[in-house]
Amino acid sequence: MRGLRCWLLALLATLLGGEGAESQPIQAGNLHLLTTEEHKLVLNRPMKVLPRDCHEMLMSSSGQARDGVYLIQPGRFPILAWCAMQEGGWTVVQHITVNSSVNFDRTWAEYKQGFGSLTGDHWLGNQHLHELTQGPGRYKLGVKLVDKDAVTKAGEYDPCLVEDEGSAYRLRLGLYQGTALDALTQDTENYLHDNQRFTTKDRDNDNYFQNCAKLEFQGVAGGGWWYDACAGANLNRRNVIYWQRDCNKEHLCKYAWMMVKPSESVKLVHSGECKKDEL
Ligand SMILES: [Ca+2]
C-alpha cells in the first residue's frame, strides 16, 4: 500500500513538473537540430538535474527510458541528443542514410556545433563529442552499419576520446571488437584514422597534398572526417557510406550510426578469455 502511494506521488510530481516544463522554452546548445514542432518530442523535459549522457538517463530510469530525444549535459551547457536506449543507452553522435537529404559537406563551424535533424540524419557536433568522451570516466565508440540487404554489422572501440578544438578534435581509439571490419585503427586500406585530426572543406588537417574533405566522388564531396591521406572509412560521404570492404561503392550500405557510451567500469571476464590473455 505504501509502495502504491509513493508511486502515485511520484506520478503526480512528474505530471505537474511536466506541465510546468512544457511551457518553458528548451535550453540547449544545439536546439537547431530540432524543428519547433519537434520540441514536444523531448522526453525528459521536466528533469531538473540532467544526465550527462543517454546511458546515465537509462540508468536513472531503471532501464525504462525509451528511444528518443533527450536533454543531456556532458559539458557546461545542456544539449539534445538521440538516445538509443533499447541498444543499451548509447548517445548517438552521427546518423546517415545513403543519399540523405541532409548535406554533410559542411564547414568547420558546422561540424563543431552539429547539423541535420536529431530525428533523422545528423552530426551531433565535434564540441559535444569532445565533451562527452573526455569523461569523467572512459568512453567507447560504437559503429553500426546496415547494408542494402538489411544485414547489420557493428563494432566498438574502447576507449574513445575526441580531443578538444585546440587539437583539431583529434580521434584517439583503443581496442576494437565487432562483426564489422576495424576500419579506423587498422590500416588495411593504407589509411589510418586513429590519431588523425578532423578535416573539413575549410580546414585542411589531413595528410594529403589536397583537402580530402573536398575530393568528390560522383559530384559529392567527402565531408568532414578524421582523414589520413585520405580514407579507409568515411561515414560522412552522403552518396557512398564507406567502411572498407563492409560498405563501399560495390557493396552499398543504407544506414550508419556512430554512438558513444561509458566503458563498463567492471568487466565480466569469462575464464576462457582469461586463458587467452595469459598466452
Ligand atoms: Ca591536405
UniProtKB/TrEMBL annotation:
Cleavable signal peptide: 1-23
Transmembrane segments: none
Keywords: Signal
Keyword match ATP-binding: no
Pfam families on file: Fibrinogen_C
Fibrinogen C-terminal domain mapped to chain residues: 45-264
GO cellular component: extracellular space
InterPro entries: Fibrinogen-like_C, Fibrinogen_a/b/g_C_1, Fibrinogen_a/b/g_C_dom, Fibrinogen_C-term_domain
Protein name from the UniProt record: Fibrinogen C-terminal domain-containing protein
Organism annotation: Muraenolepis orangiensis
